[in-house]
Specification:
It is built from nine helices and no strands. With 184 residues, the protein is mainly α. Helix 4 crosses helix 6, helix 5 runs antiparallel to helix 9 and helix 8 packs antiparallel against helix 9.
Length: 184
């Protein structure tokens, strides 16, 4: 059930998918689907949790296994964009623009982004010793926003560059600024 729902949400977005469609595609009755998930929001949240856990694991591994903070930041950004390449459906669910604003789903999606930003902030803090935690957090959110924006661009232009090339483009664009900031 979750696999089918995940594929439908990824392809068409939360707003366009109905529980009737999920049940029909799975080959079960709608009441059975409601028994397992309660409602469409809970079903979508299960899909968000699945994708968010995978993305978090990939980025955490990249950040934590790097030999130094600078490489940690590079590895984390690369892992983020390579996740998009490896699991486009999970990305589409995690960054679905059709979710209701201000509800539980948006809060859960924001929670996953904040976890990623916290990892990036720790790496930035390592690259910018002596700078405030607020500065590292702001920089991490800027980097995450840039990675998300590039990810959306890349999905429309996959023939132009590989995900790894897009990650390298982001890294080589921001590294000089971070290095300059580290010297101040």
């Amino acid at each position: 059930m979750l696999d089918v729902a995940h594929a439908l949400f990824a392809a068409r977005g939360f707003g366009a998918v109905t529980m009737d469609e999920v049940a029909a595609e799975v080959g079960v009755t709608k009441p059975l689907l409601y028994t397992y998930f309660g409602n469409k929001e809970r079903l979508f949240l299960a899909c968000v949790a699945r994708g968010g856990t995978k993305l978090q694991a990939a980025v955490t591994e990249a950040f934590t296994t790097a030999p130094d903070p600078g490489e940690s930041l590079r590895s984390g950004m690369r892992a983020f964009l390579e996740f998009l390449d490896a699991d486009r459906a999970a990305w589409q669910v995690l960054y679905d623009p059709t979710v209701p604003v201000g509800g539980e789903i948006e809060l859960e999606m924001d929670r996953h982004r904040e976890q990623l930003a916290a990892l990036a902030a720790a790496a930035v803090q390592g690259v910018l010793p002596g700078h405030s935690a607020a500065e590292a957090d702001a920089m991490a959110h800027a980097l995450l926003g840039a990675a998300e924006g590039l990810g959306r661009w890349w999905l429309r232009n996959t023939e132009a560059l590989t995900a790894s090339e897009v990650a390298d483009l982001l890294i080589t664009t921001v590294e000089p600024g971070i290095a300059r900031r580290a010297r101040t």
